[in-house]
Design a protein that fits this description.
Elements: H1 3-26, E1 29-36, E2 41-48, H2 49-52, H3 56-71, E3 77-80
Parallel strand pairs: 2-3
Antiparallel strand pairs: 1-2
Length: about 90
Amino acid sequence: MDAKTKQELLVRVDQAIKNIRPYLEADGGDVKVLDIDDDYVVQVELLGACEACPMSPMTMKAGIEEAVKRVAPEVKSINAVNIAPAN
């Protein structure tokens, strides 16, 4: 993926996360986009309460990933660098 494509994708991903951020913040958490790799996998870091929450894998799948894929369907998956992946 070229730099322009990556930048445009990052803008859409950031917007999707901005839309769900109030829900994360309501529970004392947040999420930060770290990178998008050439395989269209978004690397994020869960912050605050999200780091230790037992519901974090579900939040990733049903919340963050769904919101991102709605605006950026080319994204293959979301990977939180600081939690175990959801099954």
